Write the structure tokens for this entry.
Amino acid sequence: MKNYVLTSAVALLMMTGLANANQFEAELSTLAKGQIAEIAIAPEVVSAVKAQNETTAGYDQAKIDELDKTWRAQADAADQPMIDAALDSEVSGYLMDVQDGSDGLFTEIFVMDAKGLNVGQSDVTSDYWQGDEAKWQQTYSVGADAVHISELEEDESTQTVQSQVSVPVVDPDTGDVIGAVTFGVNVDKL
């Protein structure tokens, strides 16, 4: 019954244009500082981000744009070697397991490096470079305690109302921010 009532309330808010992240900000913030923060410091995540940061440290904006263009082209193509390599990585497998075990709470999870480039993801993202978006800019660039909560959006593919919750990936050995992670959160499951 709770999910039905919540779904109806969210649907009404969405239709009237009154919905935003503030409706669930307290719950999403608690989730970000608890379960999401724990996943962000998992050894699988931290080691993957560190490894990719070594590879991408010298990338300039032209290289980033080239990679993003390749990813976007492959997202709609039958042949997807760049995307397949990312989805077949150990960290992507870990993120898929986390999403599968969330009982529908998490609709997507993706990890970004120090440049805002995808390191791993539970599902294919539409683009490879997140560095121009608030989810990366307002976490990686802000500091270890940053939390970014997006406005509510209806995900047409899953017919759920979700908010993206992003936090930095912090190296537990140094305390340095090394990347960021974004979770699509189905607010009906809060």
